[in-house]
Amino acid sequence: MIRAGGLLRLAALAFPLFAASPARADTQSLDPQDVGAVLSRAVQESAARHQPATIAVVDRLGGVLAVYRMAGANPSPAGPGFVQVEINPNGPNTGLDGAFVPDVAAAISKAVAPAYLSTTHGNAFSTRTVSQIVQDHFDPGQAGTPSGPLFGLQFSQLSCSDVNIHFDPAVPSTLTLGPHRAPLGFAAAPGGFPLYKNGEMVGAVGVAATKSYGLDLDIHTNDGNVDEIIALAATIGLDAPRALRADQITVGGLLLRYSDATPAEFRSNPAAAPPFAEIPAAVGALTSVTGYYQESDGLRQGVVYGTPASGLRPDTSGEFSTILPPEILVDENNAPRFPPSAGKETGALTAEETTAILRAAYQVALQARSAIRQPPGSPATENITVVDVEGNILGYIATPDTLVDGADAATQKARTAVFVSRRDAAAALATQPSLAPFLTSVRRFYGAGALENGIAFSTRAVALLSRDTFPDGIGGTPNGPFSLPASSATPFSTGLQLGLIEANFLEHVDFILGKGPDTAVPCTALPAPAGSVSGLPLLRDGLQIFAGGFPIYRDGMLVGGIGASGDGDDQSDLTAFLGLFNAATSLHTGLANAPPGIRADQLEAFGVELRYVSCPVAPYLNSSVQNLCLGK
Q1: What is the pLDDT of residues 17-55, one digit of tens each?
Q2: What was the pLDDT predicted at 24?
Q3: Do 187 and 207 meet the contact criterion of CB atoms below 8 Å apart?
Q4: CB neighbour list of residue 142: distance below 8 Å, 6 or more residues apart
Q5: Residue 308 and residue 303: Cα distance in Å, rounded?
Q6: What does each C-alpha distance from 91 to 77, 98, 152, 430, 471 come to in angstroms?
Q7: 3-class DSSP state for residue 624?
Q8: The predicted structure's pLDDT at residue 426
């Protein structure tokens, strides 16, 4: 018998001790002169290559500071100003494969991804890094290996998310408050780099010039991507510290990628780029993007990360730590957007329980050994969200200097674990004819009672059901029931995950093009759970399909979910799973992880068992203890 994902290492540990030191507050931001210089360097390199580009600059929280389109950029069969999503190289196009999307949307998404996946103190990731970790093998193209550790992240930061801020010109605070959404989700197409100023991560640049929006399918060759060369030229003077770049970091023994491009390939001298104001009008112009940027705003000032104006700042309640307070999301009045609160259903989590769970998970994260941060031996950073059984956010906190993408992704994970563990998940999917094949498939795997028999699913288990081979990475096997066959599955066509929000995605593209209203918030056309107080669908920011999310039970009854995101997937599992266990142990109110007898790792199909949780080897910085999750 095979356990999908390998052998599970588990053991017991007492409640961990708190250990951390305060981090330096950020003070830097991109100013209009910086933004203009980034654009000018990109325009100069594009002109030297006779390759007109569309360029976007964002701050660290995803606020769009400028979008510039050069004359003649990106002609396509769909008209000027479009790029084409990667065509499926293995079979028929499904989902978004081959679709034409606005180049302005591509440039913004390419900028948002490195902005959200890079930090001041730990790591700098590009969109090429994203490409490496969201494909169906890790490393891409390496047969017999499992999918990328963040496969599925490409469908986070969605336009329909209720977590990220949606820019509305009539509401000035939405111009600066973040985190913001990304028009095409999380980009994995080369051509996006983070920007650093005086050692601090302050934003990112994204470039669309080659008429394609794709992936690096063969990371062992230099693809000479023009988008990436132009974007790299744009960063000069604000480029990431070399010690933090992805190519200095290994994950699972594999070195990450940062850039195929090098300064030796430049056809211009970035240091000689003219002031932005001196670029001739005939070359191009700032351009408005509906829902993201107004040309009349000119070159905008970025916000300083961690300040109230950014939408994220240190907690002042003292509820979680007085030594190293976590960060929280705030509104235009500097009030917490998601303070610890109680659910409203029978047996719901109380505000005190929500606080205890967040506090315990935070303490675990602060002591855990990071998988992605420099120098080695740095503590992990995580975003942590708790939701009730209807998907309402009961609380959110994050470790300082964490990946901004995790605010949305952690919430996706918590909601996904709850949704798939509910007894009415099957009935909800059955309301959408386009999703019926996935329900039929999961029942073929696990019987007629699948998704209505109370089995508890973690997002690690959901991930294994969402891969195009089962077990993950083993060729010649059937696809997981939430995926498509290997010949038609791609990072742009993931099966159930995309199916739930594809209509939202396409509606938003039309909105950017001025062809209709924006997509509804929240995501999906699923019905609200029976008896819902909010009347909203549970998966309000979409389904997420990588590790870090678990359902929460009270005396065997499902009462909520917890999600963690921001570091390695094992670190996220550890933060959420052990944090919940530690909180439940201290509370004595009946809370617990799912009873072992109903966990998804008890399921078997085709001789393969699922996997529920995976805690990292040697997880703590201040302890040699191993196997932290056994018996929990």
Answers
A1: 334 444 568 999 999 999 999 999 999 999 999 999 999
A2: 65
A3: no
A4: none
A5: 9
A6: 22, 12, 20, 28, 21
A7: coil
A8: 98
Residue 109 to residues 62, 102, 103, 191: CA-CA distances in angstroms? 9, 11, 10, 10
Please, what's the largest Cα pairwise distance for the chain?
70
Which numeric CATH code is attached to 32-308?
A: 3.30.450.150
Contact between 267 and 133 under an 8 Å Cβ cutoff? The reply is: no
Q: Which residue has the tokens 């499902």?
A: 558
Q: Where are the alpha helices (DSSP H) in 52-158?
A: 103-116, 127-133
Residue ranges covered by each domain of the chain: 32-308, 311-422+539-609
What is the three-class DSSP state of 104? helix
| Distance (Å) of CA 194 to CA 202, 211, 427 | 8, 22, 43
- To the nearest 10 degrees (0 to 180), the angle between helices 32-48 and 226-235 is 140
Q: Are 572 and 547 in contact (CB under 8 A)?
A: yes
Query: Cα–Cα distance between 72 and 462 in angstroms, integer?
Result: 44
DSSP-derived secondary structure letter, 515: S
CA distance 484 to 164: 29
The answer to whether 60 touches 312, Cβ cutoff 8 Å, is no
Those residues whose C-beta lies under 8 Å from the C-beta of residue 372, and which sit 6 or more positions away, are: 122, 123, 249, 251, 567, 568
Contact between residue 85 and residue 509 where contact means Cβ atoms under 8 Å apart: no
- Compute the 3-state secondary structure of the chain and give helix, strand, coil in percent, each to the nearest 5: 30, 15, 55
Query: What type of residue sits at position 189?
Result: A
Q: Do domains 32-308 and 311-422+539-609 have the same CATH topology?
A: yes
Answer CATH for 311-422+539-609 from 1.10.10.10, 3.40.50.2300, 3.30.450.150, 3.90.230.10? 3.30.450.150
| CA pair distance 550, 421, nearest whole angstrom | 9
Structure tokens at 65: 């500071």
Amino acid at 207: V
The structure tokens listed for 137 are 């093998």
Give 122's DSSP letter.
Answer: S
Distance CA 401, CA 60 (A): 11
Is the pTM higher than 0.85? The answer reads yes
Structure tokens at 123: 């790591």
- Choose among 14, 19, 122, 23: nearest CA to 622: 19
Note the pLDDT of residue 17: 39
Judged against a pLDDT cut of 70, whether residue 12 lies above it is answered with no
